[in-house]
Structures are given as C-alpha cells and as structure tokens.
Amino acid sequence: MESTRQAKIARLLQKELSEIFRLQTAKTHGTLVSVSAVRVSPDLSIARAYLSVFPSAKAPEMIESINKSAKTIRYELAKRVRFQLRKTPELAFYLDDSLDYIENIDNLLKADEAAHPGMAASDDGDGPAASTPQE
Questions:
Q1: Of 30, 65, 74, 100, which is the most exposed, with the fewest CB atoms less than 10 Å away?
Q2: Number of separate domains in the chain
Q3: Which ranges in 1-135 belong to alpha helices (H)?
Q4: What is the mean pLDDT of residues 52-67?
Q5: Is residue 130 part of a domain?
C-alpha cells in the first residue's frame, strides 16, 4: 500500500523527470522518451521510473544508455527538487512495454475477428442483454 507521501513524491519525480527527458529529446536524435510511472520505496531512498520509448525498436539501447547516466540524471533532478526534497532518491530506470503489450493484444483481436467474421460480439437477441423489460 502506497502512502500519501510516497504518491506525492512519485508525482513530483515523474513530472520533473519528464521535463528532463523532454529537454534531452534534441540530443537523442528523434527518439522520444516519456515517463509513464514512478514508484518510490517506503523509505523514499529508491525510485523506480518506468519509461516508454518511441520508436520501440530503440528502447533497449535507450534504457541501457539512461541507466548508465543515472547519476547525472539524479544530479539534474536534485537541482530541480532541492526545495521540495531533502534527499533525492537513487534512480533505477525500467522499460514500460505496456503500450506494446496493448498493441499486441489489439492486433491479436483484429486477426481473430478477421479469421472468424461471424463470431464477432454482436447482440442477436438470444442473450440476457435482450431480455430487458418493456415499458
């Protein structure tokens, strides 16, 4: 269970990290990095940031590069949040592939619908949805 303090710090870190990565977009040659979530440990010493990378083909090398420069990013973050936080948490970056997962599920559903056109979720009057009371 995440405390209110953890949630507030997570939102602050997400906002500031997003701004840092937005400013770094020019240096990444067209690769867009967005912070989808930040989770903070109960003792506020470790923050796990989940990043979405577009295009997703460059994601593993971008995450590796970002993890290598985590100390620099932490320093940049500390300069931004120095009046809100006494100690800036250690940063760990992970790839958030939930958008790829959603896209994969969507493609599978479309393929299934194309393979079985008559099996689409339609209301033909036989199910319980058709038994609504008439007024």
A1: 30
A2: 1
A3: 4-24, 59-68, 70-81, 98-115
A4: 86
A5: no
Whether 90 maps to a domain, the answer reads yes
The verdict on residue 125 lying in a domain is no
Query: CA gyration radius for the chain?
Result: 22
| Neighbouring-strand partners of residue 49 | 38, 93
- Asked if residue 129 is part of any domain, the answer here is no
Chain Cα centroid distance, residue 74: 19
Cα 71 from Cα 43, distance rounded (Å):
20
Give pLDDT tens digits for 6-21: 999 999 999 999 999 9
**How many residues are there in the chain?**
135
- C-alpha to C-alpha distance for 89 and 48, rounded to whole angstroms: 9
Q: What is the pTM of this model?
A: 0.72
Whichever domain contains 44, its CATH number is 3.30.300.20
Nearest to 37 by CA among 85, 84, 99, 114: 99
pLDDT score recorded for residue 7: 93
